[in-house]
Specification:
binds 2-deoxy-2-amino glucitol-6-phosphate; 27 strands; Glutamine Phosphoribosylpyrophosphate, subunit 1, domain 1; alpha/beta; 8-stranded antiparallel sheet; Rossmann fold; 607 residues
């Protein structure tokens, strides 16, 4: 939530900051701003709305100078408005700050600072940082930032500049991502590698309570007590083109089309000598054999990936598995013993609720394994072992390819546990692995012709509500399908177990009410068809995801979207693709911004 950038170097900072903000916009897009120092003052320009609003407000002769910071905001404290947009400045306007996170004790700090004569001009928590630094400033910006940080409780990624120390930016963080890198033109900082990857592929991931002092030719690193240290350099090997749409009209469609590659990359190297290999688990096979309970925790789409995995782990390994929304898990008192395995799933690796749940589970003695898409993210760092999904950077706010990466990773985990527990034989595992790999081609096949999906999408014109129903893995798949529709098209959509319809939701049905059904060939296919018939009788219009060759489905469905025949265990991987495309088509037809839906942000770093 919120993206910050900073640059100090030998060329003008302005365009570098604006380009960086465009790349970070997925993190928040309700307002944006930059601050650039010239010889005598810090020039600040802030605008409500997307980064494009800011870009068109910054004239050729505005904000000239080689040192600056920028911010794209997802509002927490203070409504989206120009006065609440970052950067925020001190009373004397000689210090400017951009911040990602939440300063939880800002009200107390603000009261104290106001008592000492500071005048606030915004409703944000961030502004206290500018005044705290001003209060502590005695000619050394690093010292002042360290002093301010020691008084702040909460999460922060901070980049600070001061007109009395030209060309310098001081950076620190706690529970909020910060990466830095030295390029040919100068030194860069950002919330995400994607904003500086054009300048350098060798980056430093700052850790909590560390500080960096950037000047045009160097970046120095200090620990919390002021000792300088040499940081570990991480080399980034993924392609720059992840930040481009590559000919697609939006990132979401591009990312949907990347899914066959994600399946292949996630499976690469995972079968050795006919056994599933997940070295990252850091548990011996003997220790894994002791696992008698699994918790999968996550939020949103990541939670839905867990729902699918529960079915597979219980089916193949016979280990009781619970899936919990991270924000609930952390406030319950779940039964955790030394033989409990907790799997935390998070695309961004920085979701506040998931992180808090990981910490809680570890305190209770559980081994926690993270499944994340982001190298060096907090989830990766705070877990006992981490499995990286190979989705590469996901930019669209609605998760698609990272979901497929999560489901494939969790499927591998289920197979491994099945092997360790002696419930899956080697030939069975081999066959499962090979069929899992086949889903890459099956997705490619689905993506070749989307006309049936586009046709069904037209039916949503003027609709305000929809139900998604299925049984077993079909139900789990529906949760994700419904989330996609609601988050990008703003049509209300709920998922239900098909068998639950008659226990309540069927009362909603009236002529033309859309029901999206996952009705692929499965052990409960006939039951699903009966449920669809009951709904059709009551006026529903049925849009069915069905197995190629199934003619019977046409008796109950008004629209049929066929997918290749696949083992039911792997159906969520393939069936999710038309559901993603359906949601996108509906949203595009409604004129929605599919990459940046209203009110959302890609990383949810607040509770
Ligand atoms: C997915 O489309 C959503 N944007 C959202 O539900 C997301 O999955 C959730 O916020 C969890 O994020 P994470 O995977 O980065 O932890």
């Amino acid at each position: 939530m919120c993206g910050i950038v900073g640059f100090t170097g030998h060329v003008d900072a302005k365009d570098i900051l604006l380009d960086g903000l465009k790349r970070l916009e997925y993190r928040g897009y309700d307002s944006a701003g930059i601050a650039v120092e010239d010889d005598s003052r810090i020039n600040v320009i802030r605008r409500v709305g997307k980064v494009s609003e800011l870009v068109s407000s910054v004239g050729e002769n505005d904000c000239l100078g080689g040192c600056g910071i920028g911010h794209t905001r997802w509002a927490t404290h203070g409504a989206p408005s120009e006065r609440n947009a970052h950067p925020h400045t001190s009373c004397a306007e000689d210090i400017a700050v951009v911040h990602n996170g939440i300063i939880e004790n800002y009200l107390e700090l603000r009261e104290v600072l106001e008592g000492r004569g500071h005048t606030f001009t915004s409703d944000t928590d961030t502004e206290v940082a500018a005044h705290l630094i001003e209060e502590a400033y005695k000619g050394d910006l690093l010292d002042a930032v360290r002093s301010a940080a020691s008084q702040m409780i909460g999460a922060y990624g901070l980049a600070v500049m001061c007109i009395h120390e030209p060309g310098k930016i001081v950076v620190t963080r706690k529970d909020s991502p910060i990466v830095l890198g030295q390029g040919e033109k100068g030194a860069y900082v950002a919330s995400d590698i994607i904003a500086l990857i054009d300048a350098t592929r060798d980056v430093v991931v700052l850790e909590d309570n560390e500080f960096a002092v950037m000047t045009p030719d160097s970046i120095e690193y200090y620990d919390r007590i002021g000792n300088a240290f040499e940081p570990e350099i991480t080399h980034i090997d993924w392609d720059v083109d992840v930040a481009e749409k590559g000919g697609y009209p939006d990132f979401m469609l591009k990312e949907i089309h990347e899914q066959p590659r994600v399946v292949r990359d996630t499976l690469a190297g995972r079968m050795s000598g006919n056994e599933i290999v997940i070295d990252e688990l850091t548990l011996s096979r003997k220790e894994l054999n002791y696992v008698d309970r699994v918790y999968i925790i996550g939020c949103g789409t990541s939670y839905h990936a867990g729902l699918i995995a529960k079915n597979l782990i219980e089916a193949w390994a016979r280990i009781p598995t619970e899936v919990e929304v991270a924000s609930e898990f952390r406030y319950r008192n779940p039964i955790i013993t030394p033989t409990t395995m907790v799997v935390a799933v998070s695309q961004s690796g920085e979701t506040a609720d998931t992180l808090a749940a990981i910490r809680d589970a570890r305190v209770k003695g559980a081994k926690v394994f993270g499944i994340t898409n982001v190298l060096g993210s907090p989830v990766a760092r705070e877990s006992d072992g981490v499995i990286y999904t190979k989705a590469n950077k996901e930019i669209a706010v609605a998760s698609t390819k990272s979901f497929i990466g999560q489901v494939v990773s969790l499927t591998l985990l289920a197979m491994l546990l099945g092997r360790v527990k002696g419930k899956l034989t080697l030939p069975q595992t081999r066959m499962l692995f090979s069929e899992l790999a086949d889903t890459a081609e099956q997705i490619e096949y689905i993506l070749q012709d989307t006309s049936a999906i586009d046709e069904a999408a037209k039916y949503f014109e003027g609709r305000t509500s929809a139900l998604y129903i299925g049984r077993g893995l079909g139900e789990a798949t529906c949760y994700e399908g419904a989330l996609k529709l609601k988050e990008i098209s703003y049509i209300h959509a709920e998922a239900y177990a098909a068998g639950e319809m008659k226990h309540g939701p069927i009362a909603l049905l009236e002529d033309g009410f859309p029901i999206v059904a996952v009705a692929t060939k499965s052990p409960t296919y006939d039951k699903t068809i009966s449920n669809l018939a009951e709904s059709k009788t009551r006026g529903a219009t049925i849009i069915a995801i069905a197995t190629e060759g199934d003619e019977e489905i046409k008796k109950v469905a008004d629209y049929v979207i066929y997918i290749p025949r696949v083992r039911d265990s792997f159906m969520p991987i393939t069936a999710s693709v038309p559901l993603q495309l359906l949601a996108r088509s509906v949203a595009v037809a409604r004129g929605c911004d599919v990459d940046q839906p209203r009110n959302l942000a890609k990383s949810v770093t607040v509770e």
